[in-house]
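Internal QA ticket QA-208
Title: Verify multi-chain structure generation after dependency bump
Assignee: T.L.

Test input:
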Amino acid sequence: MTEEIQEFWRWSEKNWRAPGLDWRDASVVTAGIDVGSVSSQAVILADGVVFAYHSTRTGSNSPDSAKKALGGATEGTGMTLDDVHYVVGTGYGRVNVPFANRAITEIACHARGANSMIGPTVRTILDMGGQDCKVIRCDEKGKVQNFIMNDKCAAGTGRGMEVIADALGVPIEDIGSRSFDIDDEPPPVSNVCTVFAKSEATALLKAGWSINRVLASYCAAMAERVAGLIDRLGMEPEFFITGGIAKNAGVVRRIERLVGVKAVPLPDDTDLDPQIAGALGAALFAHALYRKEQRAAAAAG
Amino acid sequence: MIANYGYRDGSGEYYVTIDTDLCIECEGRWCVEACPERLFEIARDDYDDEVATIVASARKLLKERCSGCKPAGGYGSLPCTTACEFGAISHSW
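Actual output:
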């Protein structure tokens, strides 16, 4: 008899394609590949418009993760790598995207992606990634002006949330809503270290806390840590959150409470996902760089 | 962009900060020549602009590499910040 092991940390991988858009009608096809420490995304643009994207788990090998992300986005479209005119790699594994024409930092890509998703009013971007967290200040064009990154440790990041999901046996996508199903807001657990937080969470359960109360306490700890980072850089509205944790309302609402500013939501009519902001920014960079190369080639005759 | 190169350790923060938006205006690239340790180089940033950066091999050694230009080294002002006519360079210590 085999026992099935439940993976509570496992988040849904996502695949999206623009309805009614055929990449073959486009004169320029570009791709952005964001190989993060926990998740990898690929975004494909057809003439600068989002044609498809795919979000998947990063494996132990960055080149394979990049191929998997791009393969997911192109699956069933008839598109091959040869059809993509320019590829920009970004994220933790950006230098290991074998088919990338160029690597650009995820800081610049998240700012550009957020600017494209929300518009020129975005000034402060919080990128809550798998193993780090960054606060980015940008101008109206999405160009980075300043940024700050968390210190070492996965506390306050997506990986920390995965660890807690597994420790408490709660599917990661339910954590946000369940963290509000409490009578009163508990004090936060340790926000210095994921291992300490996990051990503290287990001790609180043994002390009689409900799972939802422990989840609230962990979300509060994560929000407190991130809010400290925002305070150091300074908050300038509008404020947008990218990365996987942006989909966890338990953390997002608590950050908003601490910094006193509501995060701008994605427009209702979009199918974009805050987790693809980095890859979208990379794809936009790829589009601009390819056009620039074409102009230079034309000028050179 | 405000680019911070350096680190923090038990003895303090050691960052050289370069405001690359100011850097773009510069044609002289005086910082590259002014630094006796040759810590500055010109590179293309994410936006394809040519800006000053700190050479990668020196980023974790700034406390030691810059020490010769601090007051104890006999300098009244830092050669890099003095050479930068746009005021794009600053030190955190």
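Spot checks passed. Chain A has a mean pLDDT of 93.
Status: verified.
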